[in-house]
Amino acid sequence: MSDITKYEHNVGKRKRIRLRNLVTWFNTTQEDGEPSFEAPPGPMIEKKYIVKHGFDGVEIHGANGYLIEQFMKDQVNDRKDQYGGTLENRCRFALEIVEAVAKEIGSQRVGIRLSPFTDFMESSDSNPEALGLYMANALNKYNILYLHVIGPRWSESESPQSLLPMRKAFKATFVASGGYDRNGGNEAVAEDEADLVAFGRLFLANPDLPRRFELDAGWNRYDRSTFYTQDPVVGYTDYPFLDVHA
Ligand SMILES: Cc1cc2nc3c(=O)[nH]c(=O)nc-3n(C[C@H](O)[C@H](O)[C@H](O)COP(=O)(O)O)c2cc1C
C-alpha cells in the first residue's frame, strides 16, 4: 500500500483515484476523427495498480470543465463527427471511458463525477437538465457503483434547476454535492434527494468535519481568498481543529 493510501485508510477514508488529467493532451477542438491518445492512459487504471496501491476504486472526473466534460457540453464541443453534435455523440467519450475502466477494474469499483450545471473553464451547456438526465440514464447500463453530481446550488445562488430527475433516473447510489451544510445534507438524504452528500469547501476549512457534524459543533468559515493558492499550507492545512476541551 502506498503512503498516501495508507494515510487515507488510517483516517478512515476510502480511497479513489480521480481521472482528471489523464488525457489532457487531447482536446475537443482538434480535427474530427476517432479520439486517439498520444500516450496510453497507462498503468494508472490497470487493476494491478489499483489493487497494489490499496485503492478501493476510481472516480472518473467528468466535471468542472476538464477534458471529459469538454466533450459533453455543447458550448465547447464543436466537433462534427460521432463525438460532437447530438447529446448521444457528446456523451459517447465519457461513456466509453466508463466502459473501459469498468472492464479493467470491475464496475463496482467505479464512480463518476458530473457537473451539468456548472460552467467552469467556459464549459457550459444550453440544456444542462437534458444532459444530466441523458447521462444518468445511460450510466445505468454499466452497473457502476455511484453517480456523484455537483448540483446547481454550488454557487449559493437560488436556482430553479434540480438534481431530482437525475436522482430518480439513476438506479445505483446517488451522491449530491454543492452548497450543502450539515442541515442541508441531512434534509437532502431525509427527503430522498440523494443517498449520500459530499462536502467540498466545508471539508477544506474543517479537517475534523465529521466530528463537528456528529457533535453539531459548528464549523470554521472558509476563506475564499486562499482557495487555489500555490502555498502548500495556507488555506489547505492551517484551519484549526475543534477544541473539544474549550
Ligand atoms: C480550493 C478548491 C479546490 C477544488 N478542487 C477541485 C478539483 O480539483 N476537482 C473538482 O472536481 N472540484 C474541485 N473543487 C470543487 C469541490 O469539489 C466542490 O464541488 C465545490 O466546492 C462545491 O461543493 P461545496 O459547496 O461542498 O464546496 C474545488 C473547490 C475548492 C474550494
Automatic annotation (TrEMBL):
- Name the cofactor(s) required for activity, per the record: FMN
Protein's UniProt keywords contain NADP? yes
For this protein, the record's SUPFAM superfamilies field holds: FMN-linked oxidoreductases (SSF51395)
Q: Which UniProt keywords apply?
A: Flavoprotein, FMN, NADP
Q: Which species is this UniProt entry from?
A: Ilex paraguariensis
Pinpoint the NADH:flavin oxidoreductase/NADH oxidase N-terminal domain residues.
52-214
Query: What Pfam family is a match, any one?
Result: Oxidored_FMN
Q: Which InterPro entries match?
A: Aldolase_TIM, OxRdtase_FMN_N, Oye-like
Which family, according to the similarity comment? Belongs to the NADH:flavin oxidoreductase/NADH oxidase family.
Record's keyword annotation contains Flavoprotein: yes
Q: What is this protein called?
A: NADH:flavin oxidoreductase/NADH oxidase N-terminal domain-containing protein
